[in-house]
Automatic annotation (TrEMBL), chains A, B:
Catalytic reactions on record: 1D-myo-inositol 1,3,4,6-tetrakisphosphate + ATP = 1D-myo-inositol 1,3,4,5,6-pentakisphosphate + ADP + H(+); 1D-myo-inositol 1,4,5-trisphosphate + 2 ATP = 1D-myo-inositol 1,3,4,5,6-pentakisphosphate + 2 ADP + 2 H(+)
UniProt enzyme class: transferase
Record-level GO cellular component terms: cytoplasm; nucleus
InterPro entries (UniProt xref): IPK, IPK_sf
Molecular functions (GO terms): ATP binding; inositol tetrakisphosphate kinase activity; inositol-1,4,5-trisphosphate 3-kinase activity
Protein known as: Inositol polyphosphate multikinase
Record's keyword terms, sorted: ATP-binding, Kinase, Nucleotide-binding, Transferase
Gene Ontology BP terms: inositol phosphate biosynthetic process
Species of the source: Quillaja saponaria (Soap bark tree)
Function: Inositol phosphate kinase with a broad substrate specificity.
Length: 286, 286
């Protein structure tokens, strides 16, 4: 019944001796709780968030549905282990193109241990987090032919400068498969995936409006997933593109201030996506 | 002709043996260039900014006018020293109430020296920069009586939590002089200073719209001044309140990304001011 997910682009992945998430065929995603306070933090966040009447429905849809926790056989065969039961946000797609974007120039917070802060700060400086306000932690793309599939490694995605980030965000919505090659991405799907009244940009702007106001949570090391199905876009000219927030092991109370760290990174991402929509054919080469 | 300014709430101040800014009676502010790269950086910024045709006029008005540089006798009597000649932004006020708010959760940038980064990071963590996205570096307030004047020290303003910051932002627009005391600030001037079509909030929102889009400059360790004249507000019911950006010794090129660090802090400040306008009478005590 449970199996390792086909479509995971970042985070801990199940393999020999390594515990990782599992999915079933009913649209559930089982995320093993980390043993330290990250596990309990993430459960606490989902419990708080899912029962908080102040979260508007149009914002709630950007978060995976939370179904509770359960002890199940771990993916590494080590026996029963507590898991979060979440909505499998990619289960509605046949061939999901997925981008995982870790939001915020700062992934650490002052209450964390010195070791953790030092590790995060080093990584924020080495990657594009500090410069761009986000880093692309992973992605996968399907082409129109069965053989076409691209899943670049972290090293190729997380330390981009602004031209490189814009190019990758263009490749992600191109009908040609530029992959690592020098082929110029045609951005053919940009207007359907990023644009339009239900596209990614409008969803990001809706999320931004909430972040300009909410002082309940501060989201550190949290990712936005961008999800769409290329075949559906090419056939139906509508994207069904979705954004989803994931990874809440480092959510803190807002204590009366907005999450300026997340909001700043989100606005930076919005600026990149807006520019692609404004000039989809711009010639950019690395 | 030149004298030490009457109304300086933060930054290096002229005193025996210490070089500081000077003003004349024609509305000029003479800022001594720092000897290291901070001095040359600030000159380079003012030259670039004042000649950049891409800066819209409605944004340019938030920056002091730049009149060039000049060698003049330094305030500490040490002889000729190069100074920036700038608009004296407080010269139009008789009794200016001033708040200096250093914007951004991060005052350092990755190109700086390790020592500088460590010093800034420590200060960002000790003050409210990291938590609120800004810190109040200084302020002064006049009352309606001649004897009423309040200028709390840095220690009282720069390390506030969100309740304390909101209280101080209320005190700053109150007709009673709560100063350090327990008197509840009446926020009587909030709607005229912070609110209204030409008030502080509208000006901050205009600046925000520019920061959501501009990728020319990144402003580290830069301050927003909020300026108004209490007597004018009480007499004319219009505030003449202004915001001005100052301190550009640490401005960097944007390199294709928005200044998400400044923007995040600015949005946080906007949220505080909005809340005061929404509930001006809220009872807040420290």
């Amino acid at each position: 019944m449970l199996k390792v997910p086909d479509h995971q682009v970042a985070g801990h992945q199940a393999s020999d001796g390594v515990i990782g998430p599992l999915v079933d065929d009913s649209g559930h995603f089982y995320k093993p709780l980390q043993n330290d306070e990250r596990g309990s933090n993430e459960v606490a966040f989902y419990k708080s968030f899912s029962s908080d009447a102040c979260i508007p429905a149009h914002i709630r849809r950007y978060f995976p549905i939370f179904y509770g926790t359960k002890d199940i056989e771990a993916s590494d065969g080590s026996g029963l282990h507590p898991h979060l039961i979440l909505e499998d946000v990619v289960s509605i797609y046949q061939k999901p193109s997925i981008m995982d974007i870790k939001i915020g120039s700062r992934t650490w917070y002052t209450q964390a241990s010195d070791d953790y802060i030092e590790k995060c700060l080093k990584k924020d400086r080495e990657t594009s987090s500090l410069s761009l306000g986000f880093r692309i932690s992973g992605l996968q793309m399907f082409g129109t032919k069965d053989s076409e599939f691209w899943k670049p490694g972290k090293k190729l995605t997380q330390s981009l400068n602004s031209d490189e980030a814009k190019l990758l965000l263009r490749k992600f919505v191109s009908s040609n498969m530029p992959a690592d090659s020098d082929v110029c991405p045609d951005s053919a799907l940009a207007s359907n995936v990023y644009g339009g009244p239900a596209g990614v940009l409008e969803q990001l702007l809706e999320l931004k409006a909430w972040f300009e106001n909410q002082t309940i949570y501060h989201f550190y090391s949290c990712s936005i997933l961008i999800l769409y199905d290329k075949e559906a876009v090419l056939k139906e000219r509508s994207s069904g593109a979705l954004i989803k927030l994931v990874d809440f092991a480092h959510v803190l109370e807002g204590r009366g201030a907005i999450d300026h760290n997340f909001l700043g990174g989100l606005c930076s991402l919005i600026k990149f996506i807006s520019e692609i929509l404004t000039s989809p054919k711009e010639d950019l080469h690395l």
